[in-house]
Amino acid sequence: MLSDVLQDLLDEGLQLLGEHLVLVVSAIMIAAAIAVPLGIMVASKPRLRSIALGIANVGQTIPSLALFGFLIPIPFIGGIGQHTAIIALVIYALLPILRNTVTGILGVDAAVRDSAVAMGMTRGQILRMVELPLAAPTIVSGLRIATVTTVGTATIAAAIGAGGLGVFIFRGIASVDKLQILAGALPAAALALLADGALGWLEKRWAARS
Amino acid sequence: MPAVEFRAATFKIGNKTILDNLTLAIESGETLVLLGRSGSGKTTALRLINGMNLPTAGEVLVDGKATTAWDLVRLRRSIGYVIQESGLFPHFSVERNIGLVPKLEGWEEPRIAARTAALLESVSLPAKDFAKRMPRELSGGQRQRVGVARALAADPKILLFDEPFGALDPVTRLDLQREFLRLRAELNKTSVFVTHDVREAMELATRIALLHEGRLAFLGTPEDFRASLHPEAHAFLEVLNAE
């Protein structure tokens, strides 16, 4: 029966969607935990800044399927499954977050930073009370870009057995089944739009304050 | 003891000498105007006072103590600073901007609120209309008034002004210059004021220090300045006469 097929698809879909969310959310959280502090650290140091951005750039140029493949044979971090996929997704998400953090911090008006120093604020106070709040919309914008691309890239994670909506897509391609492909692609697209909308809203709200 | 004393203070960036061997004592309560063209070293001289720059040779004493020996955070919190574009924090309301240094200094909230309101009144911005506004909701002149109030917040003995009225239209500028003179009469602070506007210097200064290519070219009252024979002083006086 057709309805049974749909019911099975729906059940499996919900499970895969959950896996997909786990991949994306953990990758973005780890990437942000690395890239935001790193961006703050290197923003004021031109040499370190270009090194860090250079490395992040190279990470992003590796074709995604190849990167998943490269990671499999590496001991400890590699292997088949979710954690390998998350590492690959983190590598991709680093650049937009790092770049936007640096841009946001450097974009703080020189007169504002100058007067913060002149008022006797410490380095930590300037960061916490002036630079981070003013850079926040730009940093969130980096998170948004990273999240949207990660939702898409994570579909490829199915190729190394990490699950997620990509399972439908790969199975659909293998069996020339458009319905399966759509069952993976449509929720992935919807998820990307949702993340884009939510983070875009946050970004606008923060931008309006400053 | 002078409020601020430059002793053969020199500031170099690489091989370029920005300020050369400046010796100058600023007395308590006076308004010393640092006058000069762009690149004459006047802003550098000002920034040597609050340790934003440290002398590469010689020394600058504030309250009898070299800036290199001061804890710079303490030094800066005891000196008010007003700059051209006001440097107000765009994400802070007017009252948070003004109350920032007192807050950093650990004042109680009610005391900060009272101080902020009083300061707003004293720069002719009624607190009830302006305290909650954001900087972007103010005109250029109003922003500079808030900038002055912020500099005064923790009641510093010394105030530094770096071309504070430079970006304002002439009418607003005159307004604020008058306000400056009124406040000076009320508060009796030591002020150091950087400008390239000779008319402004003549209006506001108790003494003028003319800088030319990093050196002190003239030091004296505005009346003496009119009589100065130094070619750079002459150049500025010509501007005054041409107006």
Mean pLDDT of chain B: 93
State the end-to-end CA separation of chain B. 39 Å
Using only C-alpha atoms, the radius of gyration of chain A works out to: 20 Å
Overall shape of chain B: it is globular
Largest sheet of chain A: none
Structure description:
- The complex is a heterodimer of chains A (210) and B (243).
- Chain A is mainly α and 210 residues long.
- Chain A is built from 8 helices and no strands.
- Chain A has helices at 2-43, 46-61, 64-71, 82-106, 110-118, 123-153, 166-174, 178-209.
- In chain A, helix 3 (64-71) packs across helix 4, helix 4 (82-106) packs across helix 6 and helix 5 (110-118) runs antiparallel to helix 6.
- Chain B has 243 residues and is α/β, with parallel strands linked by helices.
- Chain B has 2 domains: 1-78 and 158-243, Rossmann fold, CATH 3.40.50.300; 85-156, no CATH class.
- Chain B is 40% helix and 26% strand.
- Chain B has 11 helices and 10 strands.
- Chain B has helices at residues 42-49, 72-77, 94-98, 100-104, 109-122, 127-130, 140-152, 170-187, 198-204, 222-227, 231-242; strands at 4-13, 16-26, 31-35, 57-62, 65-66, 79-83, 158-162, 190-195, 207-212, 215-220.
- Chain B has a 6-stranded mixed sheet with strand order 6-7-8-3-9-10, sandwiched between helices.
- Chain B is globular.
- The model of chain B has no long low-confidence stretch (mean pLDDT 93).
- The interface between A and B is medium-sized, with 19 and 25 residues.
